[in-house]
Amino acid sequence: MGYSDGNGHRVRARVLTLLGSRVPLSLKVFVAALAIVDDILTVLVIALFYTEKIELFSLVAGLAGVALCVGANLLGVVNRRSMLR
Fold first, then answer.
1. What's the domain range around 42?
2. pLDDT per residue rounded down to tens, the chain (85 residues)
């Protein structure tokens, strides 16, 4: 219990692949987003609770990258080649 080898992501992806077109695109996007948020939160927990010292420069650089992405999203910047079809 409590030990994860990453099979959860593979199982979700495999189930969605097997269901194919019977699953709405919105569900596929939601599952992908859920996996991404889960990974980010895992890294955050490891960084906060298993690190002796947090590097301020790295933290600020990471937050600046997130702010840049949020700003681009709010401005409506899109890359059509990277969109799901």
1. 7-82
2. 455 566 666 776 677 677 777 878 888 888 888 888 888 888 888 888 888 888 889 889 999 999 998 998 898 888 767 666 5
Overall pTM > 0.70: no
Number of domains in the chain: 1
Q: In angstroms, how far is CA 41 from the centroid of its own chain?
A: 9
From its phi and psi, is residue 6 left (phi > 0), alpha (psi between -120 and 50) or beta? left
> Token digits for 38?
């889960």
Displacement of CA 58 from its chain's centroid (Å): 19
| In-domain check, residue 19 | yes
Q: Distance between terminal CA atoms of the chain?
A: 38
Question: Is 31 domain-assigned?
Answer: yes
